[in-house]
Design a protein that fits this description.
The complex is a heterodimer of chains A (204) and B (389). Chain A is an alpha/beta fold and 204 residues long. Chain A has helices at 10-16, 33-42, 53-61, 98-108, 122-131, 155-164, 188-194; strands spanning 23-27, 45-50, 66-68, 83-89, 109-117, 168-175, 197-203. The longest helix of chain A is centred in the middle third of the chain and has 11 residues, at 98-108. By secondary structure, chain B is of the alpha/beta class. Chain B folds into 2 domains: 10-190 and 298-385, Rossmann fold; 194-293, Rna Polymerase Sigma Factor, Chain: A, CATH 1.10.1740. Chain B has helices at residues 135-148, 162-173, 192-207, 224-238, 241-247, 267-282, 285-297, 332-344, 368-385; strands at 20-23, 29-30, 36-37, 40-47, 57-61, 87-88, 93-94, 99-103, 154-160, 178-184, 318-324, 348-354. In chain B, a hairpin with a 5-residue loop joins β2 and β3 (36-37). Classes of the chains: A alpha/beta (204), B alpha/beta (389). The interface between A and B is medium-sized, with 21 and 26 residues.
């Protein structure tokens, strides 16, 4: 997990996009928070893929269907359209090849849900602009040399990649620093500036 | 009846203390070897009570040298059941809640038909006249036992090592009969290295002059030395270098200095000799040949055109696989390849790798993480199956 548990307001948004009894694969399922939420509230058929063995063992001990694996290398083993939804929450920026991973998500799931921290947020911009240092914030608490987050992007960057992969954005939500949704009527530049996290529902 | 056979297992072979299900000429078993086995018998133990819906049955599959005495005192050794830490009243697999079945595998030596059993055609022990038994043959025989209990769908099939192979075979050949499957420290095929170790063991047995081409009972003998050596070699593969070093190091056995001879100077030598000696007391040498062969022949992918995922196509069974970091007999990669095949088949699968230095045998030990995984998996499967706590 690359983001504090207390900050996971995005999970509520993700859960809101998933209808009851869907087949869901959670890539980077961490401590199983989202899977547990989805099973309890949506009775989904949920599976998880998680890098950390300790996270996996804890999930399985709690009765969740989770395997140890790497989003960069293990998604190829899943069949085309095997799931209604494939979720990648707060993990894209920690993958080695985000484009390939996103491509795989769109292949495996009828829909993909991706949430990530927005590197275009004004605090990040301010940190670089004023301090000239890589930003370390409440959401992104790592120093540049020990961060697992090796591929940050902004909301605009992400939208470009989605277009490049031939996918469409069905829904998008940006959350501000307080975890509040930013109004739908706002333009992309506004989201990119004030959105601290973004959640996208994609289809191809 | 054949003449008494030497060794402590004698009383447990044709008429064991366990309940026995006998299949006569009307119910032959068609073996992978191409022949019919008839008559034959299966010895088994059960624990707990089958519920009215017959939905709470758990089948435990034992490993190479295991037996049906999974949760009760072994009649040959007098020791507790081999998985008593896991299975029993109030345990993780709670026999107040579940009906647990464990049968001696076909080819075994504790009451199910095996090479030590009396061949009805000759009145003598089968010896090598028994056809080669495969993992699938073992499962076929277990299926007949499960049918006997009128159980349509087993709640769970679990086992480690060779037992895990049986679990995979069950899930592959009769997926509609298996609600959940828990293969531990196992593989979908026996590796070249594993076949190599088994061959060493078999050659040790066969090189013993007391083996007599497999007809040792007729000579009033048993190839104890050969079987002990086989067990010693195999036992090393069940442990790990780190665990051996931790337990024994280069410690000397009951002496202060090297003797400059070939006595068991080192504790590890003494330990292995003891393991070999106690094993021959409780196990039949020919049965050891048959058991090892069954594992060597196991290759689930080969049975499905070389694609392991096809062995599980369309399965609705819930899987949980477990491996151990220091297991060099069935390394984690073996489990991972099964997981990938199950992913490709769209199956529900959990996979836990447990960090331990106790090697392959860790599955038989009280390993808290193993028990936690089994507890979580069984618990959620039971909720899905509608079994009350």
């Amino acid at each position: 997990m690359s983001v504090n548990r207390a900050q996971r307001v995005d999970l509520e948004v993700v859960a809101g996009l998933i209808p009851a009894r869907s087949r869901v694969l959670d890539v980077g399922s961490g401590d199983g928070l989202l899977l547990e939420l989805l099973q309890a509230t949506k009775q989904v058929d949920g599976r998880g893929l998680e890098l950390s063995q300790r996270g996996v063992n804890e999930c399985v001990a709690r009765g969740l269907s989770v395997i140890q694996g790497n989003a960069d290398t293990d998604l190829e083993f899943y069949p085309d359209k095997g799931f209604d939804f494939v979720v990648l929450s707060q993990t894209l920026q920690a993958t080695r090849n985000p484009k390939l991973v996103l491509d795989e998500l769109l292949r495996i799931g009828n829909r993909a849900i991706v949430s990530f921290p927005n590197f275009g947020h004004w605090r990040v911009r301010l940190s670089l602009f004023v301090k000239g240092r890589m930003p370390v914030t409440k959401d992104l608490p790592y120093s540049w040399y020990d961060t697992p987050n090796i591929h940050f992007c902004t909301i605009r960057d992400f939208v470009n990649l989605v277009e490049e992969l031939g996918a469409t954005v069905e829904r998008a939500t940006a959350l501000d620093a307080n975890g509040q949704k930013i109004g739908l009527s706002m333009p992309w530049w506004f989201w990119n500036f004030f959105g601290q996290q973004a959640v996208f529902l994609l289809k191809r | 009846m054949a003449a008494p056979r030497p060794g402590k297992t004698n009383n447990e072979i044709d008429a064991p203390s366990s309940p026995v299900l006998r299949f006569g000429a009307d119910k032959p078993l068609k073996l992978d070897a191409g022949t019919l086995l008839s008559p034959f018998q299966i010895a088994y133990q059960t624990y707990g009570t089958l519920n009215d819906a017959r939905s709470n049955a758990i089948l435990v599959c034992h490993a190479l040298t295991g037996d049906q005495h999974v949760a009760s005192t072994n009649p040959v050794t007098g020791k507790p059941g081999w998985w008593e830490a896991l299975i029993g009243p109030g345990r993780i697999i709670d026999t107040n809640r579940f009906f647990v079945i464990c049968s001696n595998v076909l080819g075994g030596c504790l009451g199910s038909t095996g090479p030590a059993s009396t061949n009805p055609a000759t009145g003598k022990p089968y010896g090598l006249d028994l056809p080669i038994i495969t993992i699938r043959d073992m499962v076929r025989a277990q299926l007949m036992l499960v049918d006997h209990f009128g159980i349509e769908k087993l709640f769970c099939v679990l086992g480690g090592s060779m037992g895990g192979m049986q679990v995979l075979e069950w899930a592959s050949t009769c997926p509609e009969r298996v609600f959940s499957a828990l293969p531990i420290a196992t593989g979908a095929r026996h590796s070249s290295q594993n076949i190599a170790f088994h061959e060493v063991g078999r050659q040790a047995v066969m090189a013993d002059p007391d083996w007599h081409g497999g007809k040792y009972f007729e000579h009033g003998k048993r190839p104890e030395k050969g079987l002990a050596v086989a067990r010693m070699a195999a036992h090393i593969t069940y442990l790990s270098e780190a665990a051996l070093h931790r337990k024994f190091g280069r410690n000397l056995q009951d002496r202060d200095a090297l003797t400059f001879g070939f006595d068991a100077d080192f504790q590890i030598e003494s330990y292995l000799r003891h393991q070999g000696m106690t094993f021959v007391d409780r196990f039949d040498a020919n049965s050891y040949l048959y058991m090892t062969r069954s594992m060597d022949y196991f290759d689930l992918a080969a049975d499905h055109g070389g694609r392991l995922a096809d062995a599980f196509a369309g399965t609705k069974t819930r899987f949980c696989l477990v491996s151990f970091t220091s297991d060099w007999l069935f390394p984690t990669e073996e489990s991972r390849s099964i997981v990938h095949a199950l992913n490709a088949a769209g199956a529900s699968v959990s996979f836990v790798e447990i960090d331990t230095d106790r090697g392959h045998d860790a599955f038989l030990l009280e390993e808290p993480e193993l028990f936690a995984a089994i507890n979580g998996f069984i618990g959620s499967a039971a909720r899905a199956r509608g079994l009350s706590a």
